[in-house]
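Our collaborator T.R. sent over the components below with a one-line note: 'Predict the complex.' Nothing else. No constraints on interfaces, no templates requested, no preferences about which chain binds where. So this is a plain run: every listed entity goes in together, and whatever single assembly comes back becomes the starting point for the next discussion.
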Amino acid sequence: MDKETLMLTVAVLGGTGKEGKGLAYRWAKAGYKVLIGSRSSEKAVTAAGEIMELLDGTGSVVGMNNLEAAQQANIVVLTVPYAAHRDTLESVKEAVKGKLFIDVTVPLVPPKVSKVQMPPAGSAAQEAKEILGEGVEVVAAFQNISHEHLLGEGDVECDVLVTGSSKDARHEALKLVEAAGLVGWDAGPIENSVVVEGLTSVLIYINKQYGSTHSGIQVTGVSKK
Amino acid sequence: MDKETLMLTVAVLGGTGKEGKGLAYRWAKAGYKVLIGSRSSEKAVTAAGEIMELLDGTGSVVGMNNLEAAQQANIVVLTVPYAAHRDTLESVKEAVKGKLFIDVTVPLVPPKVSKVQMPPAGSAAQEAKEILGEGVEVVAAFQNISHEHLLGEGDVECDVLVTGSSKDARHEALKLVEAAGLVGWDAGPIENSVVVEGLTSVLIYINKQYGSTHSGIQVTGVSKK
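Returned assembly:
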């Protein structure tokens, strides 16, 4: 881990869920200081303890409520179910000013989760940008990664498409993708997040249709210089 | 080629463009009777002749205007630039009643073609469904395939996500995907076409960013039974 990583603190709001825990585990392993946020600080402390156990005691993962986590972090990652999206954003709005905000939320509308149904803003990430306002760069990423492989060591056979409100923000987010052991691609402006969020519904449909639990996508025909 | 294929006639409207010609070539090679449609029947005849040359005279490819092609075909495929989308649809509306309609159109809005900008209907395919009305099954497919490999023999390293207004229609379209030598996936209802159409803008962005001309995607973590 480099000096820059050592100084960075990542908050994972809704980090008691499977996706959040998986990402937190991988980032802590890569040397980031990780804060698990939850509506209940008790649950956050329990989840942090579970991740620390998986890490065999190396690394730093601490649990607290969402607001405290957002306040203490340099980078804030949101991994809540869509039903909690707006409320969580409103509750941390002041705390994330000037920070990089990474939205992992997929706006699934039960029971038809395999059908793309975007909110009026165009996507969850665009909704987050509307709520958080100027001064917060919003990036959308990690929506297509199946949680089941994140807590293991193995390769994840799904690339991460990173969209967001500025190129610098996408560049910063791509460092977190790499730190998690994943392959990431700058996929353009935040308007493109509808594709990446919607792709989750497509993959859920493909899972059902072809009998899988972890379909994903990989980008082909291009290599990183 | 099986008996069913032999009886099927596929019209490729806007088939004088690169994508349309590539698909027409592959389908003719697989034994489908192919009609190239264009606003100008003269251009359509020229394009059909070019494809026949590539086929060394085996196969059936005939050029005519869009309306005649739509009238004479069992399956109608639309490969026009988005600017011609609505007009072409209106012009063949009566001719495609009761047929399978495959929309390849990507609603790119120049000059920002790497930014997803969908029409009010949600996607080009949903717009086509609105215009064509009941009695026409609309499927969206082939939007992400780079034309440059279609006219060759080689493998195309990009899967085809097939969305559409009914499962039967998607199933029929998947046969055309296979006939073209491509790997296709049933990607769900027509509402999911926003993902597949929008993915073209994402891939254009990735091409620019990472220096390619033919990035694509492949579905991972799932196999066909």
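Summary for T.R.: The interface with chain A takes residues 114-118, 146, 157-158, 161, 163, 185-189, 191-192, 194-196, 198-199, 201-202, 205-207, 209-212, 214-225 of chain B (CB under 8 Å).
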